[in-house]
Amino acid sequence: MDLGDLLKRARSWDKLAIAKLITLAEEGIELPLENQRRSHVIGVTGPPGAGKSTLIYSMARKIPQDRRIAILTIDPSSPFTGGSFMGNRIRMQELTSRPNIYIRSMATRGIRGGLNYATIAAINVLEYAGADYIFLETVGAGQSDTDVKYVADTILVLVPPLSGDEIQALKSGLMEIGDIYVVSKSDNQVAESTYRDLMAMIDMVKEIKSDSWKPIVVRVSGLYGYGVDDLIKVIDDRFRELMNNGKLNEMLISRRVLEMRLYAYDLLEKSLSERRDLEKEVVNGRLSPQEAARRLLNAGKPRLDHVAIAVKNLDSAVEKFRRLGLRVSEPMIVEEQGVKIAMVWLGNTRIELLEPLNPGSTVARFLESRGEGIHHIALEVDDLDEFIKTAKGSGLVIIGGPSKGAEGVVVFIHPKSLNGVLLELVKRQVLNE
């Protein structure tokens, strides 16, 4: 089955096609999905045992069967396999046979905030497939479980019957993000007291909330169905207000930014698992943790270290760059290269300013023949010896041998063998070397 066919079938709410597309998205394959809002994404959070699964089950049974419903349950990951630990989908087994309902369990994979890239990728697929409601059940681990606010249009915070002190403890995490607060298990006698405490707390929140929607408290019993119809009505009212105020596209922007960040975390995790050699180098003291991290992020490839500019007066050049608002290091002398240098720090690389120490140095001769300007380009490499072998094998000419530079060991490739460019190779100094 090709991708085009899967996409077409998913738009017709083919649950098998939807499942396959989500699996592809989880694997990091970019899908050609239209970037527009269709679904009401509803985050359902709250402390463990609040009745989140039971409430979603009750709402899904009450929503008319001509509406498409998707349920994503975010379960804690196994620390050994990374897979879903609880398997909440088992609790909703009865719903899977309904043609209008799609259910999938997603593992957190250890990601901070309870969400990962795969979860947002699944939401994108389900919205593309035309889901009317997408329920996102979070782990419910208190303060760490708040990334859902960047994904969901409406957040339900479930609060089981609790004492006032327990509600106050919840306030530090979940209580600031809700749009609708649900007193779950309202068949319990303590629920009325919890409802009053929440109402008092929400009155304070309403005063500081700037948007037009003010938080609402609803009493519900998912087990007996009490209050579920009222809750669905409030949810639909919230969606209509978001549509009328043009807020849905704002949430899409928020979701896409978080998707980018979480995908970056995903790539980093994969890189960490593939570069165990760096961990060994840190353990045996050959690399600092910081240097190992830099190499990890650059995936072992050569990267631009700096661009060197020859100047006649270093102090004057430093002052000019500082006037531009740039951070410039204090000058330092590198006897081996016959120069005094200063580094201009940029967001992704550096500029090295070079002033010759004596008239017979290479930089002095450069200034005499060409004047001030770009002297060389420097690449940082992880394995200098191996890169030198590659350069020689490519017919490039190495000038002399490795020597001490400003921050490590350096060697130069002759400009006549590289289109007139003097290329410096830099291996940063590591521990115990």
TrEMBL record:
Pfam family name, one:
Glyoxalase_4
Q: Does the keyword Translocase apply?
A: no
SUPFAM superfamilies noted in UniProt: Glyoxalase/Bleomycin resistance protein/Dihydroxybiphenyl dioxygenase, P-loop containing nucleoside triphosphate hydrolases
Domain VOC, by residue range, is 303-428
Q: Which InterPro entries match?
A: AAA+_ATPase, Glyas_Bleomycin-R_OHBP_Dase, GTPase/Isobutyryl-CoA_mutase, GTPase_ArgK, MeMalonyl-CoA_epimerase, P-loop_NTPase, VOC_core
> Which keywords annotate this record?
Chaperone, GTP-binding, Hydrolase, Nucleotide-binding
Query: Single GO molecular-function term?
Result: GTP binding
Q: Which Gene3D superfamilies match?
A: 2,3-Dihydroxybiphenyl 1,2-Dioxygenase, domain 1, P-loop containing nucleotide triphosphate hydrolases
- Taxonomically, the superkingdom here is Archaea
**SMART domains reported for this sequence:** AAA
NCBIfam families for this protein: lao (TIGR00750), metmalonyl_epim (TIGR03081)
Please state which protein family the record places this protein in: Belongs to the methylmalonyl-CoA epimerase family. Belongs to the SIMIBI class G3E GTPase family. ArgK/MeaB subfamily.
According to UniProt, the name of this protein is VOC domain-containing protein
Species this protein is from = Vulcanisaeta souniana JCM 11219
